[in-house]
Amino acid sequence: MSNQPIICVENVSFAYQVNQDQQIPVLQNVSLEVYPGEYLAIIGHNGSGKSTLSKHLNGILTPLEGNVLVNGINTRDKGRIHEVRSRVGMVFQNPDNQIVATIVEDDVAFGLENIGVFAEEMKDRIDFALDAVGMSAFRHRPPHHLSGGQKQRIAIAGILAMKPQCLVLDEATSMLDSYGRQDILAVVRKLHREGMTIVTVTHHMSEVAEADRVVVMEAGKVVLQGTPREVFAHQEKLKELHLDVPDASRIAALVHSEYPAFNPNLIHNEEVVAEVTRVQIREVEASGS
Ligand SMILES: Nc1ncnc2c1ncn2[C@@H]1O[C@H](COP(=O)(O)OP(=O)(O)OP(=O)(O)O)[C@@H](O)[C@H]1O
Ligand SMILES: [Mg+2]
């Protein structure tokens, strides 16, 4: 990871203007940096401002106060908004709302037409993007016949065609069945391995455990951040924030309360299995000596 962030959120406050004299304050002095190649998860209770923050990352929303810089470009700079949007792409919750064309390849091409990419290059980019999400065989199909997971893959392809540096997923798997969810997670993991920066908003704590870094939001503020292991060590605090922890963390804490030798700070299922084995071996050795 290089030290130069792709995205800098600097002291951002935001409120939705409901009518002339009523504002709903949502973000309060939020600062956050997203570094190249990292996998960042944003978690928080419903209404804590995760989607509002996500929409600031590529200029869909602009701050009331503070600034968001994408590779140094201020998202307030409307003349450069296409540049910002092609660097940071967003995938939303509902796959149906993101399909704009009646043929898959036209859907993937949509964003490219907006930024004026030439026909030959457009073809290359569509090939690349559909291949990256494993949907090349569906190129000439109508997207509305696809499953939810396949539609999300097409939505991701539409973004990849723009050659972004960062992909922001706002609960992109929450409307999918378990198969569709695993499908999208596999695509996201692969993109991350190949160098793509990922920002994901999710309620699935097993997904969060895979991230490099976690940011926890509450009432429009960042209240906790760190590696998944650091964040999930705060089980009591997370409970107060109405947030879950991965099954592995819950099980480890429970076993630790009965057997203090058991490491409580585990986040992956495989770690729990390994720890059970380790503790068993220790006990066998202890009883044998
Ligand atoms: N377009 C809007 N107009 C007015 N208020 C809004 C709008 N969108 C969101 N809000 C309010 O802003 C607050 C934060 O909403 P936001 O969608 O950012 O939260 P969230 O953390 O993404 O929640 P969830 O987990 O439910 O997706 C909530 O109180 C919400 O009701
Ligand atoms: Mg949301």
From TrEMBL:
It is a peripheral membrane protein. One of its GO terms (molecular function) is ATPase-coupled transmembrane transporter activity. This is Energy-coupling factor transport system ATP-binding protein. Residues 7-244 form the ABC transporter domain. InterPro entries: AAA+_ATPase (IPR003593), ABC_transporter-like_ATP-bd (IPR003439), ABC_transporter-like_CS (IPR017871), ABC_transpr_CbiO/EcfA_su (IPR015856), ECF_ABC_transporter_ATP-bd (IPR050095), EcfA_1 (IPR030947), P-loop_NTPase (IPR027417). GO terms for cellular component: ATP-binding cassette (ABC) transporter complex. SMART domains: AAA. It is found in: Cell membrane. It comes from Brevibacillus centrosporus. Gene3D superfamilies: P-loop containing nucleotide triphosphate hydrolases. Belongs to the ABC transporter superfamily. Keywords: ATP-binding, Cell membrane, Membrane, Nucleotide-binding, Translocase, Transport.
